[in-house]
Amino acid sequence: IGDAAHAVRPASGLGGSLAFEDCVLLCRELAASRDSLSVSNKANVQAMLGRFIQARLPRVTKIWQDEWDRAESSYTGKRLPPRRQESLDWIHQGI
Asked: Nearest CA to 29 among 3, 60, 61, 54?
């Protein structure tokens, strides 16, 4: 969850936000599966976690890559253009 799973650069301040998003999506998945699946069944838990990963990976990958590129550019002196407002809105919009 959060930094433990995504390892976002600390300067971004997004590790905690991603952790909250992870928790919300895991809770939604558990709630949706509560009536139809037994959480005590290992295969059911693996299926729920698989759906969680599929839902999270695209967003987390995009955020992680952007933060990585920005941090690396600060070391090389190559400045990246500021984030566009639509990108900032997408990040702050959350899940």
From this structure: 54
Note the pLDDT of residue 38. 59
Q: Is the pTM of this model over 0.85?
A: no
- Measured CA to CA, the distance from residue 46 to residue 64 in angstroms comes to 25
Q: How far is CA 81 from CA 40, 54, 74, in A?
A: 49, 30, 12
The H or E element spanning position 16 is helix 15-33
With beta carbons less than 8 A apart as the criterion, state whether 27 and 14 touch: no
Q: Does residue 51 carry a pLDDT above 60?
A: yes
> Is the CB of residue 15 less than 8 Å from the CB of residue 6?
yes
Highest mean pLDDT among 19-23, 32-36, 67-71: 19-23
**C-alpha to C-alpha distances, 70 to 7, 28, 94, nearest whole angstrom:** 15, 32, 20
